[in-house]
């Protein structure tokens, strides 16, 4: 699966929220899945962890909020900061949808989310995109917006090996080319 571009991310979320009609095919918007994908793109969690998220998993810690979950795949504790804007976005969704703070915010399966996303990406004629592309989008944006700090991305994704992160963001080759071109010092 590939990382999304910002345009792809925005287009997918818009179509997921609003829906579409294409000939005899009609897709009613799905705000729940759109919201789950937005949160994934902003926190970098795997979709399974997003779908298991409860508002009470985000704890106030002084003047900040932090995530307090155990990742399903790795069984690692995740205690990262959740920016106030993201917490408020989640809290507003919970309030608008009358979801208890101890209940799952998104009571759907990974398979259901993938299926809905596939319909949207087919409509948009996008290939090789899954929910994991939103995690890769997060990683790529963090990488680009933080001076290409791959160690930071590795920490945020909780990868054990830096090589995994390098493959994940798939920018290493581009960075190598840029480094080589910037190093030219002919006499």
Layout of strands and helices, then pairs:
Layout (H helix, E strand, L loop, with lengths): L5 H13 E4 L2 E4 L2 H13 L3 H5 L6 E4 L2 E4 L1 E2 L6 E2 L2 E2 L1 H13 L13 H14 L8 H14 L4 H8 L4 H8 L2 H11 L5
Characteristic terms for this protein:
187 residues, mainly alpha, hpI Integrase, Chain A, three-stranded antiparallel β-sheet, two-stranded antiparallel sheet, 9 helices, 53% helix
Kindly provide the radius of gyration, computed on alpha-carbon positions and rounded to a whole number of angstroms: 18 Å
Helical run tally: 9
- Report the structural category: mainly alpha
User: Within the largest sheet, what's the order of strands?
Assistant: 3-4-7
Q: SSE order in H/E notation?
A: HEEHHEEEEEHHHHHH
Strand content: 5-15%
Number of domains: 1
| C-alpha geometry | globular
Largest sheet: 3 strands, antiparallel
Q: Return residue spans where pLDDT drops below 50 for at least 5 consecutive residues.
A: none
CATH fold annotation? hpI Integrase, Chain A
Q: Compute the average pLDDT.
A: 90
Number of strands: 7
CATH architecture descriptor text? Orthogonal Bundle
Q: What distance lies between the first and last C-alpha atoms, to the nearest angstrom? A: 44 Å
- Can you tell me the CATH class? Mainly Alpha
CATH-defined superfamily: Intergrase catalytic core
Give the helix level as a range of percent: 40-55%
């Amino acid at each position: 699966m590939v990382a999304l571009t910002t345009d792809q991310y925005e287009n997918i979320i818009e179509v997921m929220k609003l829906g579409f009609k294409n000939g005899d095919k009609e897709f009613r918007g799905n705000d729940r899945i759109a919201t789950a994908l937005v949160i994934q793109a902003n926190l970098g969690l795997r979709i399974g962890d997003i779908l298991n998220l409860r508002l009470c998993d985000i704890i106030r810690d002084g003047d900040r909020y932090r995530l307090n979950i155990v990742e399903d795949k790795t069984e690692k504790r995740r205690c990262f900061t959740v920016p106030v804007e993201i917490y408020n976005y989640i809290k507003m969704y919970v309030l608008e949808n009358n979801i208890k703070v101890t209940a799952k915010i998104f009571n759907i399966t990974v398979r259901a989310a993938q299926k809905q996303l596939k319909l949207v990406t087919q409509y948009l004629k996008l290939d090789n995109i899954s929910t994991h592309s939103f995690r890769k989008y997060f990683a790529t944006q963090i990488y680009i917006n933080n001076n290409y700090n791959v160690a930071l991305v590795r920490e945020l994704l909780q990868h054990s090996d830096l090589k995994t992160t390098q493959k994940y963001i798939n920018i290493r080759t581009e960075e190598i080319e840029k480094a080589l071109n910037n190093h030219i010092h002919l006499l």
